[in-house]
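pasting for the record
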Amino acid sequence: MPYNVEIEKRIDKIISSWPYLQKRKMFGGICYLFKGNMCFGIYKDYLIVRTGQDLSIKLLKEKYVVPFDITGKALKGWVMVQEQGFSSSVKLSNWLQIGKEYAASLPPK
Protein backbone atom coordinates (compact mmCIF):
# COMPACT_ATOMS: atom_id res chain seq x y z
CA MET A 1 0.00 0.00 0.00
CA PRO A 2 1.45 3.38 -0.98
CA TYR A 3 1.54 6.21 1.50
CA ASN A 4 -1.46 8.52 1.90
CA VAL A 5 -0.86 11.55 -0.33
CA GLU A 6 -3.67 13.45 1.39
CA ILE A 7 -1.58 13.45 4.58
CA GLU A 8 1.37 14.72 2.54
CA LYS A 9 -0.76 17.62 1.22
CA ARG A 10 -1.85 18.51 4.76
CA ILE A 11 1.74 18.45 6.01
CA ASP A 12 3.03 20.49 3.08
CA LYS A 13 0.40 23.16 3.72
CA ILE A 14 1.45 23.48 7.38
CA ILE A 15 5.21 23.50 6.80
CA SER A 16 5.27 25.63 3.64
CA SER A 17 6.96 28.51 5.50
CA TRP A 18 9.30 26.40 7.65
CA PRO A 19 12.94 26.83 6.60
CA TYR A 20 15.54 24.05 6.33
CA LEU A 21 13.08 21.24 5.53
CA GLN A 22 13.61 18.70 2.77
CA LYS A 23 11.39 15.86 1.64
CA ARG A 24 12.63 12.41 0.58
CA LYS A 25 11.07 9.09 -0.28
CA MET A 26 11.95 6.58 2.47
CA PHE A 27 10.38 3.56 4.19
CA GLY A 28 8.01 3.20 1.25
CA GLY A 29 6.64 6.62 2.15
CA ILE A 30 7.82 10.18 2.57
CA CYS A 31 10.22 11.47 5.19
CA TYR A 32 10.89 15.10 6.04
CA LEU A 33 14.32 16.22 7.19
CA PHE A 34 15.24 19.31 9.17
CA LYS A 35 18.84 20.37 8.45
CA GLY A 36 19.51 16.82 7.27
CA ASN A 37 17.98 15.04 10.29
CA MET A 38 14.79 13.01 9.90
CA CYS A 39 11.94 14.57 11.89
CA PHE A 40 8.59 13.22 10.63
CA GLY A 41 7.02 11.51 7.69
CA ILE A 42 4.26 9.31 6.34
CA TYR A 43 4.06 5.53 6.23
CA LYS A 44 0.85 4.21 4.67
CA ASP A 45 -1.90 6.00 6.66
CA TYR A 46 0.33 6.78 9.64
CA LEU A 47 2.17 9.92 10.59
CA ILE A 48 5.61 8.97 11.86
CA VAL A 49 7.31 11.36 14.28
CA ARG A 50 10.83 11.41 15.67
CA THR A 51 10.52 12.28 19.33
CA GLY A 52 13.58 10.99 21.13
CA GLN A 53 13.46 8.02 23.49
CA ASP A 54 12.21 9.72 26.65
CA LEU A 55 9.32 11.54 25.01
CA SER A 56 8.33 8.51 22.92
CA ILE A 57 7.76 6.48 26.09
CA LYS A 58 5.36 9.15 27.35
CA LEU A 59 3.59 9.59 24.00
CA LEU A 60 3.04 5.86 23.53
CA LYS A 61 0.54 6.05 26.39
CA GLU A 62 -1.68 8.36 24.31
CA LYS A 63 -4.62 7.16 22.27
CA TYR A 64 -3.84 6.54 18.57
CA VAL A 65 -0.06 6.38 19.14
CA VAL A 66 1.85 3.15 18.49
CA PRO A 67 5.53 2.18 18.21
CA PHE A 68 7.17 2.86 14.86
CA ASP A 69 7.50 -0.74 13.78
CA ILE A 70 7.42 -1.65 10.11
CA THR A 71 9.96 -4.48 10.21
CA GLY A 72 9.14 -6.42 13.38
CA LYS A 73 11.56 -4.36 15.47
CA ALA A 74 10.38 -0.98 16.75
CA LEU A 75 12.60 2.05 16.22
CA LYS A 76 13.40 3.70 19.53
CA GLY A 77 12.66 7.40 19.73
CA TRP A 78 9.96 7.31 17.07
CA VAL A 79 6.18 6.91 17.16
CA MET A 80 3.45 6.24 14.61
CA VAL A 81 0.22 8.18 14.93
CA GLN A 82 -3.04 6.88 13.51
CA GLU A 83 -5.09 9.37 11.49
CA GLN A 84 -7.56 9.93 14.35
CA GLY A 85 -4.64 11.31 16.38
CA PHE A 86 -4.02 14.17 13.93
CA SER A 87 -7.51 14.75 12.57
CA SER A 88 -7.34 18.54 12.91
CA SER A 89 -4.72 20.91 11.52
CA VAL A 90 -3.86 21.98 15.06
CA LYS A 91 -3.19 18.39 16.16
CA LEU A 92 -1.15 17.69 13.04
CA SER A 93 0.85 20.87 13.51
CA ASN A 94 1.59 19.92 17.13
CA TRP A 95 2.95 16.52 16.05
CA LEU A 96 5.07 18.09 13.31
CA GLN A 97 6.47 20.61 15.78
CA ILE A 98 7.54 17.77 18.11
CA GLY A 99 9.48 16.15 15.28
CA LYS A 100 11.01 19.41 14.13
CA GLU A 101 12.09 20.37 17.64
CA TYR A 102 13.77 17.02 18.18
CA ALA A 103 15.59 17.20 14.84
CA ALA A 104 16.64 20.79 15.63
CA SER A 105 18.27 19.53 18.82
CA LEU A 106 20.68 17.40 16.73
CA PRO A 107 23.79 18.64 14.93
CA PRO A 108 23.06 19.53 11.28
CA LYS A 109 24.15 17.00 8.68
